[in-house]
């Protein structure tokens, strides 16, 4: 094919023609779809967009016509407003009173009348802009009237009256021109100021201002039935009035002084309830109403309690008792759903806050027990808790627990039951300490509460409540256990009782598995603690405490499958006891070696069972560690003494494994044992300046390589060959360096080049040989 065009230009030309063909094809497909729709529909179909035009007529529009129009109208209204303000504030003094009044009246009348013909012509956006300017001019008229006609009048009082007049005028204007959306919301906004400003002008107190705000909110709520925009200011003003009532109620010094704030709060509560009664979605108004009622009634009782009870827990208890009836709203079917929901949530909120305030005494009371750790078995009476609300705190926690339990039954939900269990435990467990009981009574009561929580965790059908009770029981048991360290008799008695209870709980079959597992772990922990305490009583050295502790994992291994579902958690906890025994014996090498060997015996006994074969590795590691500790204590530094016994035992185990299972890999059978000796020996040989150790290691590696090749075993072949190669390179490296230093500098690069040429020339053959070697090694076991 001959073409006078250069290849690059011809390629570009072909690309352009292909693009045009694609565009033409899309054009025809669009036309075809349109024709099919014409044939399927009885009426004519609109022509497809873009038909008859190859490209769009102009650039895409970035804004729509209505949005551009709104921007222009808004800017125009703003400019007119700025001009009106400048005229009123700056140029006002250059005209006489008649001229000023005439100008403002004429401009205001024109601005308010202009929307009428604009609406008739369908120019609604323009009418809105002009109406906004007119409303602003009415505000300027009011200011001008005050500045000229009544300069000595009270500004706040005049503002209240002007706001009322403007609200009425704007409301009438909006009612006359219903197509305008701005006047009525503006009237609602202006109506928020007359009563509060009038109260401020009369120098009213906070309560009077609160009543003014609430009265305005009532008017807004009534207006919200017709104008939805009034709902927002009604909520804001009601909240402001209620805040004033709360502040005045909490600052009242007597019951008589608390009456007026209570009346304001109850009035606000009535307004919120009425709003929720009319509006199904306004349950938040009922919630606020419930909170306001609780604060009002509680505020009436608070001043009477302050003189006789200095603790705020009693005040919180009063508020809790007032809030409890609100919870019963969920059962009153005569109330609307929004009212029931809001009042019930108000009761829940007050109950939660009061319970949290009382629960603040629980944490310090529990943490006070930790001071016993400063001097164990000192037989001293612990100091009282730093914060003790006494009976009020206990009553609050138990009352809140009862309310939460009742809600869980009514609502059939698990969350309140969990809260009830936690609160009940907190109240009952800390009650003896908060009430100042003697130490023996405190321990007895807390043990009973802990046991009750454990029984509930075992017997409760509700999963969430059972888990919560189990956590509470564990927390209580830990706290009582720490407190029992104050005396020896208390330690043995408390730990023995708790350990026996945990063991009984672990054996209780119908209980949830997680609860039983936790009880089993605690039982093992208490058994370990009792053995340590018993060893401590005998005045033995700490390193010898490890021997009785080892009885715990030994007993767990002996029990084995008889433990049933709690076997795994018991064995894990027993392993922790074994680790503790090793840690206790670490102070003396001989005792440590003995403990490690005994721990290895325990693990070997566990590995006898088929399902615990893997524990045999731990047994081997413990035996090896015991021998290493003994060798280190004897001053042995030869690495073979540490590695050869391990290698011999591992090779015997591997041989038995291969004898039972001929298909087992040589890496599994012999790899760990060989690596245990070869790798440490190689590291030592690389740092040894003598020739004896590298020679012996090389011979051993050579023997392993030959054995692996003869027996077709991959592990001995590769491990022996790798060690032999490293030893050979290490031994020959000084001579290679010496020879390389004697040669001319150009010889090494030349040799490297020749090697690369030889490899490149026989690349395929070398690659085939490498694949054969890989396949041959892969066939080894």
Computed CA radius of gyration, to the nearest angstrom:
46 Å
Number of β-strand runs: 0
Q: What structural category arises from helix and sheet content?
A: mainly alpha
Characterize the biggest β-sheet: none
Strand-residue proportion: under 5%
Query: What is the overall pLDDT average?
Result: 78
Flag low-confidence runs. 47-73, 383-388
Distinct helical segment count: 33
Principal-axis shape equals flat
- Distance, first to last CA: 65 Å
Helix content: over 70%
Describe this entry's structure for a reader.
This protein has 781 residues and is mainly α. Helices cover 77% and strands 0% of the residues. The chain is built from 33 helices and no strands.
Which key terms come to mind for this protein?
33 helices, about 775 residues, mainly alpha
């Amino acid at each position: 094919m001959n073409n006078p065009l250069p290849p690059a230009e011809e390629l570009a030309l072909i690309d352009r023609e292909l693009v045009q063909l694609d565009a033409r094809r899309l054009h025809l497909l669009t036309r075809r779809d349109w024709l099919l729709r014409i044939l399927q529909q009885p009426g004519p179909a609109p022509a497809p967009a873009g038909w008859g035009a190859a490209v769009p007529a102009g650039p895409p529009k970035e804004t729509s016509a209505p949005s551009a129009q709104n921007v222009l109208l808004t800017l125009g209204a703003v400019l007119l407003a700025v001009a009106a303000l400048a005229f009123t504030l700056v140029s006002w003094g250059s005209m006489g009173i008649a001229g000023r009044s005439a100008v403002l009246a004429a401009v205001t009348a024109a601005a308010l009348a202009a929307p009428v013909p604009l609406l008739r012509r369908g120019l609604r956006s323009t009418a809105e802009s002009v109406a906004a300017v007119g409303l602003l001019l009415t505000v300027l008229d009011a200011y001008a009237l005050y500045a000229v006609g009544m300069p000595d009048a009270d500004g706040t009082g005049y503002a209240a009256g002007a706001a009322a007049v403007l609200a009425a005028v704007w409301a009438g204007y909006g009612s006359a021109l219903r197509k305008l959306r701005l006047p009525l919301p503006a009237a609602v906004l202006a109506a928020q100021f007359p009563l509060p400003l009038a109260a401020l002008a009369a120098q009213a107190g906070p309560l009077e201002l609160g009543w003014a705000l609430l009265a305005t909110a009532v008017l807004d709520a009534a207006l919200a039935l017709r104008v939805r925009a009034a709902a927002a200011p009604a909520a804001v003003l009601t909240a402001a009035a209620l805040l004033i009532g709360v502040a005045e109620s909490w600052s009242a010094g007597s019951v008589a002084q608390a009456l007026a704030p209570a009346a304001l709060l109850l009035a606000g509560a009535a307004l919120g309830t009425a709003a929720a009664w009319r509006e199904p979605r306004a349950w938040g108004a009922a919630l606020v109403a419930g909170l306001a009622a609780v604060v009002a009634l509680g505020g009436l009782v608070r001043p009477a309690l302050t003189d006789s009870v200095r603790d705020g827990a009693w005040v919180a208890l009063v508020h809790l008792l007032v809030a409890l009836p609100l919870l019963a709203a969920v059962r009153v079917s005569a109330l609307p759903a929004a009212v029931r929901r809001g009042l019930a949530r108000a009761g829940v909120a007050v109950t939660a806050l009061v319970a949290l305030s009382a629960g603040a005494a629980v944490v310090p009371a529990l943490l006070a027990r930790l001071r016993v750790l400063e001097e164990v078995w000192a037989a001293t009476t612990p100091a009282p808790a730093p914060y003790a609300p006494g009976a009020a705190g206990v009553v609050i926690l138990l009352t809140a627990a009862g309310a939460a339990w009742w809600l869980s039954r009514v609502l059939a939900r698990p969350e309140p039951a969990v809260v009830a269990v936690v609160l009940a435990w907190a109240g009952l467990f800390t009650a003896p300490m908060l009430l100042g009981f003697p130490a023996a009574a405190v321990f007895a009561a807390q043990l009973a509460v802990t046991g009750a929580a454990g029984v509930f965790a075992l017997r409760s059908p509700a999963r969430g409540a059972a888990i919560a009770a189990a956590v509470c029981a564990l927390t209580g048991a830990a706290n009582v256990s720490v407190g029992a360290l104050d005396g020896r008799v208390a330690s043995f008695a408390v730990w023995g009782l708790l350990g026996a209870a945990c063991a009984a709980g672990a054996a209780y079959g119908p209980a949830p598995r997680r609860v039983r597992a936790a009880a089993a772990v605690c039982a093992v922990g208490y058994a370990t603690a009792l053995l340590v305490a018993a060893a401590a009583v005998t005045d033995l050295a700490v390193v010898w405490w490890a021997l009785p502790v080892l009885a715990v994992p030994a007993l767990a291994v002996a029990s084995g499958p008889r433990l049933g579902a709690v076997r795994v958690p018991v064995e894990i906890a027993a392993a922790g006891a074994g680790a503790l025994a090793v840690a206790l014996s670490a102070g003396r090498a001989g005792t440590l070696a003995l403990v490690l060997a005994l721990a290895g015996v325990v693990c070997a006994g566990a590995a006898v069972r088929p399902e615990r074969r893997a524990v045999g590795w731990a047994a081997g590691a413990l035996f090896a560690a015991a021998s290493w500790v003994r060798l280190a204590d004897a001053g042995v530094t030869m690495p073979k003494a540490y590695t050869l016994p391990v290698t011999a035992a591992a090779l015997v185990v591997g041989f038995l494994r291969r004898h039972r299972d001929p298909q087992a890999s040589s890496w599994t059978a012999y790899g760990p044992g060989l690596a245990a000796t070869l790798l440490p020996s190689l590291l030592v040989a690389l740092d040894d300046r003598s020739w004896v150790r590298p020679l012996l290691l090389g011979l051993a590696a050579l023997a392993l390589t030959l054995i692996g090749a003869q027996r077709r075993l991959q592990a001995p072949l590769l491990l022996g060959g790798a060690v032999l190669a490293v030893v050979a390179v290490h031994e020959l490296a000084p001579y290679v360096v010496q020879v390389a230093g004697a040669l001319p500098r150009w010889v090494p690069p030349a040799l490297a080049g020749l090697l690369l040429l030889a490899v490149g020339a026989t690349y395929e053959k070398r690659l085939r040989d490498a694949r054969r070697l890989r396949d041959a090694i892969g066939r080894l076991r």
